[in-house]
């Protein structure tokens, strides 16, 4: 419950135009200190939980084990973790490409789901909680690769989960 409260606080900060990406290039030690704030850790932990749920606990755990084995006693960069996940998924999913949309952009998406009969359509756009006109920037270039999971009447959450990766502005 405490972690959930922290996630909502981080989302509130991330919905502001003054937010920053989880990962970015830095030029000075001061920028490094700014980058490693509580927000970055909370959002990063949330993103890892999202990935774990999408890949399944077993696949995620195997990816972590490969990562730790391949990089024990060494330094790494974020791409190394995503490469380890790609290795475990046999490259059936480009985890690096998906996760870069989350860590290199500030903010998060608002997903709108519309049902028309048996058809479902989904659309994404950048979510803003509050934008001051002088600080507003266009959100047209923002695109996330959003792992969506869903259930149907023939497949409930305890028996199976369907997955869909929304990697465009809209999809069906």
TrEMBL record:
**Cellular component terms per the entry's GO annotation:** cytoplasm; extracellular space; plasma membrane
Give the SUPFAM superfamilies listed for this entry. Metalloproteases ('zincins'), catalytic domain
Listed under GO biological process in this entry are: peptide catabolic process; proteolysis; regulation of blood pressure
The signal peptide stretch is none
Gene3D superfamilies in the record, alphabetically? 2.60.40.1910, Neutral Protease Domain 2
Q: Pfam families recorded for this chain?
A: Peptidase_M1 (PF01433)
Alphabetized GO MF terms: metalloaminopeptidase activity; peptide binding; zinc ion binding
Q: Enumerate the spans annotated as Peptidase M1 membrane alanine aminopeptidase domain.
A: 5-102
Please state what the protein is called.
LCAP aminopeptidase
List the PANTHER family hit by this protein, alphabetically.
LEUCYL-CYSTINYL AMINOPEPTIDASE, PROTEASE M1 ZINC METALLOPROTEASE
Keywords on record:
Aminopeptidase, Hydrolase, Protease
């Amino acid at each position: 419950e405490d972690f959930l409260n922290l996630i909502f606080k981080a989302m509130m900060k991330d919905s502001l135009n003054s937010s920053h990406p989880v990962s970015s290039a830095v030029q000075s030690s001061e920028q490094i200190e700014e980058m490693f704030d509580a927000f970055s850790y909370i959002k990063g932990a949330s993103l890892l939980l999202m990935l774990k749920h999408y890949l399944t606990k077993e696949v995620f755990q195997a990816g972590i084990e490969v990562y730790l084995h391949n990089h024990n006693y060494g330094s790494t960069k974020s791409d190394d973790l995503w490469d380890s996940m790609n290795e475990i998924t046999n490259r059936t999913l480009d985890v690096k490409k998906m996760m870069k949309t989350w860590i290199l952009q500030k903010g998060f998406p608002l997903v709108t789901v519309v049902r028309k009969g048996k058809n479902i359509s989904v659309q994404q756009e950048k979510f803003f909680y509050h934008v001051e006109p002088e600080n507003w920037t266009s959100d047209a270039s923002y695109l996330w690769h959003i792992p969506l999971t869903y259930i149907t009447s023939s497949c409930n959450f305890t028996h199976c989960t369907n997955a869909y990766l929304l990697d465009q502005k809209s999809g069906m």
